[in-house]
Amino acid sequence: MSNNSDKSAPPLLTAHGLTKTHGRTPALRGASVELGAGEILAVTGASGSGKSTLLHCLAGIVRPDEGAVTYGHTRLDQLPEKRLSELRRTDFGVVFQFGQLIPELTALDNVALPLLLAGASRRDAHTRAGEWLERFGVLGQEELRPGEMSGGQAQRVSLARALATGPKIVFADEPTGALDSLAGEQVMSALVHTARESGTAVLLITHDAQVAAYADREVQLHDGAVVPLGVTA
């Protein structure tokens, strides 16, 4: 697939030599990866290969034990938590496998929440949230709460929430993992179309080859390290 990234431009996000251990279990063993502006990158690998840990390090959710994560000219792994939280509200959007919408809030309020946190007025936040719900094909579901939505509806609301603030990067962790194949295709089509329109880079974690095929490029994790595609020995 074509993308909007400039091949000659420096990477938007770079990870080099990341290691991370959970207890006594190594999750990352020297993982390195680059993401260009406007690029859709799929990170694939078997369950337990370190994919989600890599995403969490790249998004500043957890700190690597060793290695560097650089966003533009900023070392994310050296930033204080307050600054990382700000970046996740402004520059980064995160989508999890099960959406993690706030169950007490309607679809409209879930999407409006990051806009309100960024300082938008309630009226403006709701107007923009409605526009994003329309872009993801869930207009008319504004007053539904997560428990009243289908899995595909909830995931599209999650994508609308992640993109509503105009992030530079969306981190999507198995965004179709809880969906049937048709709903998964609809979610991925909506994500890719919207990312292309807005020039947003996407780091996509998936174990599904059909989902990875939506990306411009694919890298593979095996035992916590990035390896050439098809090489797992």
TrEMBL record:
Coiled coil: none annotated. InterPro entries: AAA+_ATPase, ABC_transporter-like_ATP-bd, ABC_transporter-like_CS, ABC_transpr_LolD-like, MacB-like_ATP-bd, P-loop_NTPase. SUPFAM superfamilies: P-loop containing nucleoside triphosphate hydrolases. Keywords: ATP-binding, Nucleotide-binding, Transport. Residues 13-233 form the ABC transporter domain. The keyword ATP-binding applies. GO terms for cellular component: plasma membrane. GO terms for molecular function: ATP binding; ATP hydrolysis activity; transmembrane transporter activity. Residues 1-24 are annotated as: Disordered. This is ABC transporter ATP-binding protein. It comes from Streptomyces spongiae.
